[in-house]
Each structure stands twice: as structure tokens, then as C-alpha cells.
């Protein structure tokens, strides 16, 4: 008899509870739902339910070559890229615009946080028409085999680890006080920094996550890597590359009509911050209601300077130079 999805969730919950628990990020007294664990086979770190959901996704997700995936580490600019990909894919005539006013996380849902959110919350993505726009923070080696085999395009956004660290520190320690069971004192920035440098960060180690996608691309996977800082400096170049990668290059007429700038402006930090789209509510991630505005904080490349000492910055830079030594990432 075939296992039901409820049984799969129960089975993987039992399994993940046997994985190593990361006590440096969440003490023993923290409830399972918010505790950090390490994926036994691939070594990455995340919240207990996320690893469970990732295993469920691995079992149930059926990929299509027409899917488009946005992938990233949290706090790398995922929400921005989702918006850009959505606008590129949905431009032109004969398009369905009924979802345009939803937040990017609703338009491009996360596999492990929204699609397979829990045994009682599974989105029916099998009945969605193609092309489906989906996203994930899952490290490349743990992606569902069906996703990889489909050969669908994956756009991966990555960001200076100093900025990722500072953004993450704000998001998880300050902005989300409503997390269930969060009755332990938040880590100080120094404690969390020590963890981050030692590889203990959400979906981390940071460097392994980036290298996982970089290596896969090097080995022929259908991946485009975009750096947050490059998108900031030269959005036109990055957007053209993105549209070409998605096999929807901007036409001469579109260029003449300023469509590229139109998309850049519509997705810019300030426009989005002022828009109703973000004021309009919450996104449910892992059954936690997260106000859409919390995904927008500063939207700058150098805000980390206000939080990290020169010594901390130097340490992260050195680690990055070492870890990315044999790549074209630096
Ligand atoms: P900061 O906290 O540094 O401001 P993610 O979507 O992966 O969680 O990333 C969130 C980070 O991207 C936040 O960084 C957020 O402010 C920034 N961001 C969100 N939308 C943006 C946009 N349209 N332009 C630039 N940065 C944006």
C-alpha cells in the first residue's frame, strides 16, 4: 500500500529528529519546531521543519522542463529576484495578470516553506498550468531529483556574506518576534557572527550553498548566477542576461519602449516599499505569518558597515577569499 503524504511527514519527522542538533544556534530547551538541525547526508543546517519538508519535497515534487526556479540563501535578495522573474515571464500580450498584486512569495512560492509547508498545508502545484514559477532555499545537492532531471532553468541570487549576515541577524532576531516557542533570548550579534563564520547559519554554511550552485553550473546544469551587488550596480545588463537565460530576450521594440527600465523601476526597493503589494498583508512561511514589509529593510549594499567592526568584516572577507579561491566568484 502506498504511503500517504501525512505518513511521509510523520516518517521524516522521526528521521530528522535523529539528525545532529545545532545547539549553538538553538539551545536544548528550544522546541523542535524552531530548533536547528544538520542534514545528515549533505551537512547543511536549517530549522527542523524545513529539513522535514525538504525530504517530503524530494519524494513528491514532479518537475517540468518549463518550470522556472528562483534559488538562494535567505536574505540574498530572493524577493527582488522573484519580482523580476515574474515580470519578465508575464510580460507581453495574452498573459494572465490575476496574480500581479500578490506579494512575490505568493507569486513564486517556496517549495519547502509554502508548497510542502506541513502535513495539513500542501499546495496543489501539480494542477498549475505551465510555466510554473517556484523557488527554494534548498542547497543544490538536496534538491529534488525530479527538479534537477527536468533541466528547468534555475536562477540563483547570491550576495556578499557580510550583507547576508547582517540582514539575517535583523530578520531572525528582531523582526520576527512572533515565532512559536521563541521564548529564549536572541543571540547577540557577536554570538551569531561566530556561528556564521563556523558554518552555522540558516541553509548554511554560506559558502557551501553558493559553491553548490556554482559547481552545478560548471558541470553543465541550467543555472544562471546573479550577484545582488551586480544587480544593484548594473540592473540593465543583469536583466537582459536574465531575460535571455529565460529564453525571453527583450526585443528591439521593447528596448525602444523602455520596458527594461519599466521593470527595473517597478521592482526597485523604493517603488516596492511604497506599493500596496507589500502593505497588503502577510505571507505564511512554515505556518508563521510574516508581514510582507519585513522582507524589505534597507536594500543597500553597504549597510553591514553599520553593524560589523572592521575586524569582523576582515574575517568574513578572508574566509570568502579562501573558500572561493578556485572560482570566478571573487
Ligand atoms: P537588507 O536586510 O540588507 O535590507 P530575501 O528576499 O532573500 O529575504 O532578502 C531580503 C534582502 O533583500 C533585504 O536586505 C531586503 O531589504 C533586500 N531587498 C528586498 N527587495 C529589494 C529590492 N527591490 N531591491 C533591493 N533590495 C531588496
TrEMBL record:
GO terms for biological process: sulfation. GO terms for cellular component: cytoplasm. SUPFAM superfamilies: P-loop containing nucleoside triphosphate hydrolases. InterPro entries: P-loop_NTPase, Sulfotransferase_dom. Its EC number is 2.8.2.-. Signal peptide: none annotated. One of its GO terms (molecular function) is sulfotransferase activity. The keyword Transferase applies. It is an enzyme of class 2 (transferase). It comes from the Eukaryota. The keyword Secreted does not apply. Pfam families: Sulfotransfer_1. Residues 66-327 form the Sulfotransferase domain. Keywords: Transferase. Belongs to the sulfotransferase 1 family. This is Sulfotransferase. It comes from Zostera marina.
Amino acid at each position: 500500500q502506498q504511503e500517504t503524504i501525512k505518513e511521509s511527514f510523520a516518517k521524516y519527522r522521526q528521521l530528522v529528529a535523529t539528525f545532529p542538533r545545532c545547539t549553538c544556534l538553538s539551545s536544548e530547551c528550544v522546541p523542535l519546531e524552531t530548533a536547528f538541525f544538520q542534514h545528515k547526508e549533505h551537512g547543511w543546517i536549517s530549522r527542523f521543519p524545513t529539513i522535514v519538508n525538504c525530504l517530503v519535497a524530494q519524494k513528491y515534487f514532479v518537475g517540468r522542463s518549463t518550470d522556472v526556479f528562483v534559488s538562494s540563501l535567505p536574505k540574498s535578495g530572493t524577493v527582488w529576484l522573484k519580482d523580476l522573474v515574474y515580470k519578465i515571464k508575464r510580460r507581453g500580450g495574452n498573459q494572465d495578470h490575476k496574480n500581479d498584486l500578490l506579494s512575490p512569495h505568493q507569486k513564486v512560492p517556496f517549495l519547502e516553506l509554502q508548497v510542502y509547508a506541513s502535513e495539513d498545508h500542501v499546495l496543489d502545484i501539480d494542477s498549475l498550468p505551465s510555466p510554473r514559477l517556484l523557488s527554494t532555499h534548498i542547497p543544490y545537492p538536496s534538491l529534488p531529483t525530479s527538479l534537477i532531471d527536468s533541466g528547468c532553468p534555475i536562477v540563483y541570487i547570491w550576495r556578499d556574506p557580510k550583507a547576508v549576515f547582517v540582514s539575517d541577524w535583523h530578520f531572525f532576531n528582531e523582526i520576527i518576534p512572533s515565532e512559536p516557542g521563541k521564548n529564549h533570548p536572541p543571540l547577540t550579534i557577536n554570538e551569531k557572527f561566530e556561528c556564521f563564520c563556523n558554518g552555522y547559519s540558516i541553509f548554511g554554511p554560506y559558502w557551501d550553498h553558493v559553491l553548490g550552485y556554482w559547481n552545478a553550473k560548471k558541470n553543465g546544469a541550467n543555472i544562471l548566477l546573479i550577484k545582488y551587488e551586480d544587480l544593484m550596480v548594473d540592473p540593465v545588463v543583469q536583466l537582459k542576461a536574465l531575460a535571455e537565460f529565460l529564453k525571453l530576450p527583450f526585443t528591439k521594440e521593447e528596448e525602444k519602449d523602455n520596458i527594461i527600465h519599466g521593470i527595473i523601476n517597478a521592482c526597485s526597493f523604493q517603488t516596492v516599499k511604497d506599493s500596496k503589494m507589500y502593505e497588503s498583508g502577510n505571507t505564511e512561511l512554515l505556518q508563521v505569518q510574516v508581514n510582507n514589509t519585513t522582507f524589505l529593510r534597507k536594500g543597500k549594499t553597504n549597510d553591514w558597515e553599520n553593524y560589523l567592526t572592521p575586524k569582523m568584516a576582515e574575517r568574513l572577507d578572508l574566509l570568502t577569499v579562501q573558500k572561493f579561491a578556485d572560482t570566478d566568484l571573487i
